[in-house]
Specification:
Blueprint (H helix, E strand, L loop, with lengths): L15 H6 L5 H9 L7 E5 L5 H9 L4 E6 L11 H8 L5 H4 L6 E4 L12 E6 L9 H11 E15 L13 E5 L2 E2 L2 H10 L3 E11 L2 E11 L11 E2 L5 E2 L16 E6 L1
Parallel strand pairs: 1-2, 1-4, 2-3, 4-5, 6-12
Antiparallel strand pairs: 5-9, 6-7, 8-9, 10-12, 11-12
Bound molecules: S-adenosylmethionine (SAM).
């Protein structure tokens, strides 16, 4: 079982408004609404859904769509699909009587570097503060592409950094690092190369000042504009990749040492 964080812990209960701020106003709601023009049956997946607060907010707005969430492993406040009832009432999304009547989203426990879903099955895939923890970010992106329906969209929060970081994290994307000929090959440039091969994947970097410090966040917006297989051809560097949690044995420096440092060679 994962770290036993209590229900309502900020790190596992970010809401829809916080998600949309990373992209644009009402982006998830608008995407779902526009997919109804193409398909009658809409399927949505959240990668690293924590307590499932966003899933339950979407359930409130869209009572009948198919909703799925993935977490790596269970903990006290998230033991699976039935835990979503407590999430829904704790955050006052549903009343105790309403919660008995809704169709609960489905929770899966797995490493999201492999998505155990058929090809072309989701209209929308989204994720916030979770991909940073995934070891094989290359496989995750390839899987998201595979699992999206043609024309489907993914809004992925990929990595974040602050100004003050130790030298081992002093990269634009400290948890997604690519080298070519032993020199850093910027993730931005890599994604542009993929885009130029015909795959509609857009890299974005948002920079903001908070308490006098610069914080930056990298997101990707994917639109499945063709049905070719996405093969990123990144070679995983096992020697240089590791869970940053090992640098924080006393578990008191989560502001810095969190997530999984994934290193690749081109
Ligand atoms: C910091 S929490 C964020 C939860 C939620 N998205 C939020 O913003 O409140 C990270 C989440 O990612 C999930 N996670 C971490 N590594 C994962 C992996 N390899 N595959 C799937 N989920 C993972 C955890 O189970 C956890 O729910």
């Amino acid at each position: 079982m994962g770290r036993d964080l209590k229900r309502g812990h900020f790190s596992r209960t970010r809401d829809l408004a916080v998600f949309n701020k990373k992209f644009s106003p009402n982006i998830l709601e608008k995407t779902i609404a526009s997919r109804f023009k193409v398909h009658q049956k809409i399927s949505v997946l959240e990668i690293g859904c924590g307590e499932g607060r966003v899933l339950m907010q979407l359930r409130k707005i869209f009572p009948d769509i198919e909703l799925h969430g993935i977490n790596k492993k269970p903990w006290g406040a998230m033991r699976g699909t039935s835990s979503l009832k407590a999430t829904g009432t704790y955050h006052r999304i549903f009343t105790p009587s309403e919660i008995k009547t809704i169709k609960l989203p489905i929770i899966h426990f797995a490493n999201a570097n492999r998505l155990d879903f058929k090809d072309n099955c989701f209209d929308l895939i989204y994720s916030q503060v979770a991909i940073q923890y995934v070891d094989r970010k290359d496989q995750l992106l390839e899987e998201v592409w595979r699992a999206l329906k043609p024309g489907g969209k993914a809004f992925l929060d990929i990595d974040a950094r602050t100004e003050d970081v130790p030298d081992c994290l002093d990269f634009v994307s400290p948890r997604f690092i690519i080298y070519k000929d032993n020199k850093i090959y910027p993730l931005r440039r890599f994604i542009k190369d993929v885009y130029n091969r015909g795959f509609d994947i857009i890299y974005k970097r948002l920079i903001k000042k908070e308490s006098g410090k610069t914080k930056s966040r990298i997101t990707m917006i994917i639109t499945k504009n063709n049905n070719r297989k996405l093969d990123l051809s990144l070679k995983f560097d096992e020697l240089s990749s590791f869970d940053l949690g090992v640098l924080n044995p006393e578990k008191n420096k989560w502001s810095v040492y969190w997530g999984y440092r994934s290193v690749y060679r081109l």
